Amino acid sequence: MSEKIRQKPLKIVKNNLFMMGRMWKYAREYFILNIIFQIIWGIIHSVNAVYTYSLLNIVSENGDFASAARLIVHIALFFTFAYAFDKTFWYIRRPLVLHKLTLGMHGELFEKARSLDLACFDDPRFYDDFVWAMNNCDNKAVEVFDTACKMINRIISSATMIGLLFVIDPVIAALLITSSLITTVCGVFNNKMWYLCEKKVAPLYRKKNYINRVYRLADHSKEIRISRANELLFKEYDLNSEKIIKNEKYYRKRCMFLGGIAWDTLGTLTFYAVLIYMIGLLKTGSLEIGAFAASATLVWNLRWAMTDLVSKATEFPKYSLYVEKYIEFLRSEPEVTGKIKNIPDFESLELRNVSFSYDFSNHKKYEYHDKDYTPPAGEGSEKEALKDVSMTINKGEKVAIVGYNGAGKTTLIKLIMRFYDPTEGEILYNGVNIKTFDPPSYREKIGAVFQDFKLFAATLADNVVFGKYEPQMEEKVLNALECVDFSDKLASLENGILTPLTKEFDNSGTVLSGGEAQKVAISRVFAADRQIVIMDEPSSALDPNAEYELNKSILNNTRNKTVIFISHRLSTTRIADRIYMFDSGRLTECGGHGELMARKGKYCEMFELQAEKYRRGEEYEAV
């Protein structure tokens, strides 16, 4: 289970300075105030010793209690103002300013995640790093900067206290410095142990958190109650818990050993050795009572300040390991790129000898249940999804893509939308390879409704426009909802298009049925007014009558648009100008409905397996 991690000192410095740069960029007020704050408190830590020294000397030498009382009042006022500033800073200013840091850093991650290729999210390691970055980036920035500021505090505190101790007795100062150096070595190894522990258990915690979500979210509630999935999930939860305990036990033992040496044993022995030495000086008259009391306070405070200084210093290599993951994520660049942003209006889309394989080689091995991660059984390092596909779609055509599960239909759409690039062959938009186009600009020409569409916890209008709704968009939203036959449901909503969807944040929100939600998802393509419309199983949640009405509406409202249907329910194919039949990643048949039925091939077989209405070729409208 041991693992060596080596970092160059320059890399450690660069990584931590990078995080402090984020603090300066997004929380500048906190950056400045915290440094001032730590300098002030670094000086204050020495005040107690000086105060004790002065007070005891006044009392022991001449018994001037009036002078002692004045000193007490002065120090009380000083600490009153100091603590007032402390509470104002930590309880009011700091939390408010740090919200800006979270907003800024998360905004960076949101933009980066949106820009990266879909293939990145197929890699479990990438997903783990992204989740970690999202959950910890702002906290780590604060930790790095706060630790650096506290080091400033401890350096000032230690310097002033060592100066006082050297004045009182140099031997005491030398003993404490030596003790702290030994603590440094132990602290470095201790922090590496904690990093390795957290790295080891991260995938295990991800599995546990997934199981927690399954029980917490409504999406799985019905399945949990009607199946034996509970046994499977709880067994996995138990197994992961055992693995976490095993890993943490291994590393905690080593951390306890290092921590015990560094702090408890060595620190305690050093303190009592110095105390015995000072008692000897006091007995021989080499030390005043005030100096003895001040020295005792300084020894304890200095031991704490220097040990904490060393502890803080040894945190930076650990921070660097975490920060490196964050920096690597920000440095990630999409491979699906292009320069041309001015995309012409659509005329044709051609696929020439297109093949595509899902690549699992990026799924680098990592610890998971103490086993190396490998692709699912039978998949190897690559899985071929499409093979040598050639087809052409022209402006205004209604095209249906059909086939059994796993035939490659959805993969084809992902390639057309350029979520992936073909492994072989090319896709041409108006005769130009789409690899030359800027992906976001190219996708603005396409409106898509995916089978696994998602509605957001926002208003109905926000969901239709797929963004922030503005009052001037009202007509566009209403027209889009009318296109998908949502008007009756809309009339029943008290707040109309401003009704919140889901009850995630608002109890007055409405929960739509599967068919209603699908209609809202489809309305997005009408609100966006795109030149190419892709419908991935557009009527899967609708009954046959609703499906028929929806198909009529799609036809009526896309007369001048190019529409690509993907469907298992072959009623949709009847309205297509051309049908492409896929089987095991290959394009096996192409033609109109009547033509393919006459061939008695796979399409005919699939069509005839469905309901009786599909056998009456010209009676579709009687559904």
Describe the protein in words:
With 623 residues, this protein is of the alpha/beta class. It folds into two domains: 26-331, ABC transporter transmembrane region fold, CATH 1.20.1560.10; 398-420 and 447-622, 3-Layer(aba) Sandwich (Rossmann fold), CATH 3.40.50.300. The protein is 61% helix and 11% strand. It is built from 17 helices and twelve strands. The strands form three sheets. A six-stranded mixed sheet has the order 8-9-10-5-11-12, sandwiched between helices. Strands 4-1-6-7 form a four-stranded antiparallel sheet, covered by helices on one side. α15 (544-557) links the parallel β9 (532-536) and β10 (562-566). It is elongated and about 115 Å long. The relative contact order is 0.08. Residues 363-381 and 614-623 have low confidence and may be disordered.
Mean residue pLDDT: 79
CATH architecture label name of the largest domain: Up-down Bundle
Unreliable stretches: 363-381, 614-623
Overall shape: elongated
What percent of residues are in strands? Answer: 5-15%
Secondary-structure element order, N to C: HHHHHHHHEEEEEHEEHEHHHHEHEEEHH
Task: Quickly give the structural class.
Answer: alpha/beta
Q: Provide the spatial order of strands within the biggest beta sheet.
A: 8-9-10-5-11-12
E-strand count: 12
The first-to-last residue Cα distance is 65 Å
- CATH domain topology of the largest domain: ABC transporter transmembrane region fold
For the report, how would you describe the main beta sheet?
Answer: 6 strands, mixed
In DSSP terms (H or I, runs of 4 or more residues), the helix count works out at 17
